[in-house]
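G., the chain you wanted modeled:
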Amino acid sequence: MRRLLGSLFLLTSFILSAQKEAARPDVPGNIMVDVGLNYWDSEPNFVDQAGWRSKSVGIYYTKRKAFSKKFSFTYGLGLGLEKFDLGDSLTLSSGELFNADDNDPANDSLAAFAFSSLPDNINYQKNRLAVTYLDIPVDFRFHPTGTEEGEGFFIGVGGILGLRLASHRKLKFDEAEESVIEKVKGKYNLSSVRYGLQGRIGFKGVHLFYKRYFNDLFQDPIGGANPQTTTIGINITGF
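Predicted structure as tokens:
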């Protein structure tokens, strides 16, 4: 009886597993997830950005075009979710763009987005600018030892183009012994388009990446600077 029950259990498990495999669609391509940290090449005045608080997550659907066993082209479409830490002193205001002195034409180049000072008596756990982009990443990959389906070691070089979809400022602080989260949507003088180069090295399933964006983050400088962004992180592919 035990053998019979055991056989029935194994047969049932096999049938259920086969049904799951049959129901799973064979969709070409892969889900590629980039997780990294953002860094600015210059900081606006009074903004002390903490790199480890400025995070980046990219979620892309990608496809691969093979030219040979050693060369291929990867392209995709997805979302880039960027967070930029703004330090402990100032946060971006949702106000309009203004000039430092409208009566002095020489100061037209000093156009800056409004800042708001953070009260000293409040402990802020988060003071971040969050931006969501629709991204198109592409790269050419070289597999030194050859590959069949993209597996194995590779070196990739390519580019990335993004369109800003949404942005908001987020503050998190304690007030009256309660945690308060404040989100304010706005354009925040952000550039509508971003573009840059990317490099990747490692294996198809797990590799390291480097992204360098050449566009200014803001349409006009803030606090005497208009930073460009570099992102460094790790990728997981194959979901």
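The longest strand covers residues 153-175.

Shout if anything looks off.
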